[in-house]
Amino acid sequence: MKCPYCGHEEDRVLDSRPLEGASIIRRRRECQGCQKRFTTYERLESVPLMVIKSDERREPFNREKLREGILRACEKRPIGPDVIERLLAEIEYELQDYVMQVPSRVIGEKALKKLKELDPVAYIRFASVYRQFRDVDAFLNELEKIKKEEIKPAPPPMHPGRGGKRERKKSAAAEAASEGVGSAP
């Protein structure tokens, strides 16, 4: 740090204190050349993330705008505000990979992916606005995709050589109990 009095570049820090929730650090310094004291403030420089819209307009990333869209999609669903905040934080964290600008479609796709994992109804609601379904067929096509993904294949049948005698005894005992065999009249 250059001394504001004599221009000497050597100093020592006498005191450091965080200000404003630790986003600013105040340092009291003493010049090694002229021994005068001065104060510096260190602040984290934040570069706003710009969103590139589909029509090539640019606007600053707005977390509140994303929150409103997700809240609207999750309305009357069993999704708590803490889950929505976590979802927003995850999306914001993933956006840190972008330097200074991000296409709006990337944000929308990240939100859709998170909502699809969270709640299919919230996903469809968000998708209907984000993808701007033009007609009922587009809406139904998206619903069909979701239904196909939700159908889970049945687990494979148990191998006859596995499970041991104990498993077979349990299932035989369970069958007998359900049929009333061995129970007192």
How would you describe the overall organization of this protein?
With 185 residues, the chain is of the alpha+beta class. It folds into two domains: 11-43; 50-150. It has six helices and six strands. The protein has helices at 63-74, 81-95, 104-118, 120-130, 136-150, 164-179, and strands at residues 11-19, 24-31, 37-43, 50-52, 58-60, 101-103. It has a three-stranded antiparallel sheet, with no helix packed on it. A hairpin with a 4-residue loop joins strand 1 (11-19) and strand 2 (24-31).
| Low-pLDDT runs | 162-174, 176-185
Query: What is the total tally of β strands?
Result: 6
Number of domains: 2
Spatial separation of the terminal alpha carbons? 95 Å
Biggest sheet strand order reads 1-2-3
Helical fraction: 40-55%
Question: Rough shape?
Answer: elongated
Largest sheet: 3 strands, antiparallel
Percent range for β-strand residues: 15-25%
Helices, by number, come to 6
Give me the Rg, rounded. 31 Å
Mean pLDDT: 82
Which SSEs are present, and which pair or pack?
Elements: E1 11-19, E2 24-31, E3 37-43, E4 50-52, E5 58-60, H1 63-74, H2 81-95, E6 101-103, H3 104-118, H4 120-130, H5 136-150, H6 164-179
Q: How is this structure best summarized?
A:
With 185 residues, the chain is of the alpha+beta class.
Question: What are the salient characteristics of this protein?
Answer:
3-stranded antiparallel sheet, disordered C terminus, alpha+beta, 185 residues, 3-stranded mixed sheet, single chain
